[in-house]
Amino acid sequence: RACLRFFGRSFGSNPSPCTLRESLGTWRQAGCIMHEGGCDQEEVRSRDDETSGTKSCPCPEVSSSDDETVEGTLEESGLLITDAVAEIDITNTRNLSQMIGQANARARGQGRHRAACVSHVFLALSVGFWVMVFGLPLYHLGFYYTLFGLRGTVIHKVAEEFNESSNSTNTFPKGVQKDNLLLTCASLDVGKMRNTAPNGHAALLESWNGNMTVWNKTNKGDIWCGFFPRSFLLNWPNVAQFIIFSVYKNTGTTINLAFQGIMGTAMAGLNMQCMIKLFPHGASGHECLNTTDGVQDNKWEVLWYVRKRGWYEKQSTYKGEAIRYYMDADTGGLQARGVFGPDGKLDPYLTWSRNDYWSQKLEARHKALRSEVCEPGTFVYKDPNYAAYGEIACLVDVALVLLLFLISKSSRNTMMFGMSWHVTWMMSFMNPSVGVLQDDDGDVMGWLGFLSADVVVVVFTTLIGAVFAIVATLIPRMGLLNTSKLHDDSVAVTHRITTVWNECTHYFLGGNRSARRFQLERQINSIEGLSADVQDHVDGAWWETFDFGSWGNRRYLLKLFDANAAEIRNILQVVKKCVLSETFKGDHNRFMESVKSQVHELVAVTAALMWLCMQAASDGVVDAAEAEQIAAQVDVVVEKEAALLTAFKAASPGISDDLSDEQIFIFAVGVWSRKVRDFALKMTSMIKTGTSKLRVTCLLSAVTSVRDTWSPSAMIQIEHVKYAVRNWLSIEICFLMGYWMNGSIFSRFNSTMAATLTLLFVKEGSHVVEYEKSTHRLLGVSLGNSLPILISGLTDFFTCNSYERLFVQGGSIWVYSSIWMFVYLNSDMWGYVGCLIGGFGVYKLMEPCHESGSDSEFISKYQAIGNVTVAILLQAIVHSLLSKSGPQTLCVAASRSCCASMVSAFEALFDGKDLSGLKAALDEASTQLSKAKSTVAECEPKMQLIRGRKPPFKLDLARTTILNLESLISEMSLIVTASENWSVLGSLEADSGQAESIGVLELLARMPAMKLAKAEMMPSVKILEVVMPDMLANVPSAEDGLRDVRVSKELECANALYEQLAAAAGSLPTQKHTELTDDIRMRLSIVVRCLQNCTLYLGRIEERCVTEFAL
Rounded to 5 degrees, what are φ and ψ at 748? Predict the structure, then answer.
């Protein structure tokens, strides 16, 4: 009946016996039922309080006289737990039956992978769809014409295929004359343009204005140049690439990655604008044509001027090559062009100008170039400052900015986009043939030039890509919002923890050992992965709400709740060991039977309190009513703790080996109960202090991010500096190679190699050349450049303006992007490759219709693949040369430090006077063990390119040792927990470097058997400190330390220690504590049991070392 009232909202105020039976499983999942059977096996009778008669259901008919029978049956089955639980009323929750059912499925993992796979499929299809939609302006000629006008090679292809009779069956806009297709908009031309040149002359496009005759696209000479200049056309695929690189498995992470990409791009753009301020013309200039010394250079000179782009100059030894330069001059915006012979005279047959003004400017330009004060053959920069120190300044800027990105603690995505655009823009800035946009007078362009600059265009397309990346996770609705998962996650974690406690209690209070213990072990282990998902969702929810309004309070409270649940997870690790090791022999049944009902009740009310705290945190506000309700339930928990303490004392288990696991289990239940109670009290105190409405504002987050990114203490850490230098040097070398080398697969002013490494730089913490990862990089980039060429061969079967090509190219983009996006999301092994193939390949697929399959195209792709290969190999070489300490060396060093800290911990333990020193030594050992674990994965033999003369690393020994060291540290930590005076700390939530002993270690140190324990264990500890690390390092003398080793997994003096402690505890004054966890006898039993377990783990390490020695 208590459960009926506790979950009354789900089943109505007066559920029938049938509802009781059907909902038994649901209640049991919620922590309300302690035993299997019960209502499922008994004939449960109940009285309907509202109507008389019987219920129509399989249950037997009932009458009002059976009320007491029902109550007794419920009590026997574990349903009727306590009156306190009956007072709990959850009024602000959705259908609890459905909620708990979903929580059960999620916690058990049933359907989890299937649901994840389905969400990945829909997300991949959504990304592919939005990439296809945003690519429409490039392969749908109607959109192309509207946005970009008559420019690009696609217009020339359309002109070749144009047939007015079929104009109604293609995608090109109607009414555009074929003659107009021969005109080409200049790079910065936008809007309505008109050709004002006489017939037979080169096109002269001018912006249309109201003083001219009516503009109409059907008029000959009236053309449309689109809404965007040419630079937008070239950078349009950047949107698709940004979408692929930013979308991830949920909306919050996607927003975070998109923001990081925007910030990186903006920082690179800011640096670029500063460089333009210093050198307004960049590296633009021309070769010196000075012939004032009267010496003929026997070279032909070609000059031409393109509107809003500036003057171009070319020299050639042969007239034929000069004629080719003349013919290839950009006709879009061309104002004048001419070929000058070696004698300096203009060839009358190879010249054209818009009018006499431009003819005179052409002659004047040539004369000025001939009379420049310069050495013939040298390069003349437009900006005299650049000529003086510009190149050095730019190279220093490239190196400095790259180093700042890497040495900072910026996120990886910020560094990727920032460094990639930085090297790309700076290479173009230092390329004399690119320079900076100028007007007809040679000055830097105004607002139109600014909007057309690559920096502005890239930032704009990046913002658009960020928006579409976020939209891809929202439409269609796939449940990828972290905010929608916060409540479900908390329910799942609470359900899993309470269920495990119930199952463990049911098993431990049973009468025999069974295989059920292995299922419980797996359930406890699975909580760790569930807690990690919860933490990711809590962090990701900030990016979806920015903690505005009640969302911030809700996220804050749920974060506290989930953190408390994570601490409870650690307690369950102790319970797991008890469940696995308990044999159910000796006095187990007698002792557990004496505390059975009290343990059941404490577990039940603690579970109920945990559910109540979760529900109070889920709405983001702990109001006075909820605080009062929580406080009342805390009182119930305290009452049940006292009842269990009384029963425990009455059972008088004493200090013995027989009941050590049982006492550890009771102790763990008390710790769990106390932690939940402490958290509940913390929540109730929030209503008084006003701290229940804390949130992380955008300003606070920005300040924190800047502080963490540029924290000097974090930036100057030796490992971080090494990581930054290794990556910086490889990227810098590739940039210099691209800047200077020319020939073979290299072309000067090519940023491909450097830009590739900025996207593929080695992660921090990696201590070995990632040959497998490098292979994946090479594979991903190579296929990303090759597969689109094969796919485009299919689209080339159709004309540019046909609907068939539209559907084929659009479908190819959707399918290609979706497939590789799904691989990225769903594959652990090939996800990175899929991301690279999708990101690099989408550029080629989104190209407008042009003459594909030419030799030049294949040559450029071959060169790109060659550049990428050289860059990745160079990265591996640099990383290998600068990594003097390999992962094996670092793993051995970390293991040696961990073992040395463990020696200090055992010495502090046996000394019995320095609990704080013991705790500090364990913290250091845990830190060093984490380092060893992070490097042991890199010690795989397959990670070595060449093994050389060194013997193979003892990987199995390292893994076995690390596994047992983890268990050893866990046991020692439990000793610290059992030895601390919690009443001084005030709460288990307190965490300080100092620990005050309750007297456990001091009492142990006075026992004669403790000296025997030290004599037994310390030789094994010394082997752990010296022999094991030496064996990992292949020191020949290490084997000498194992010749006389005594491998023992049992503490032989344990029984004597139990007896001596039991005798000593009998003389202790009567304890007046009210906390179950403060019982000194229980704590002493726990410490001795932990010493036995430590001996076991030390023996396992010795055994593995001896086995390795035998091999």
Answer: -65, 150
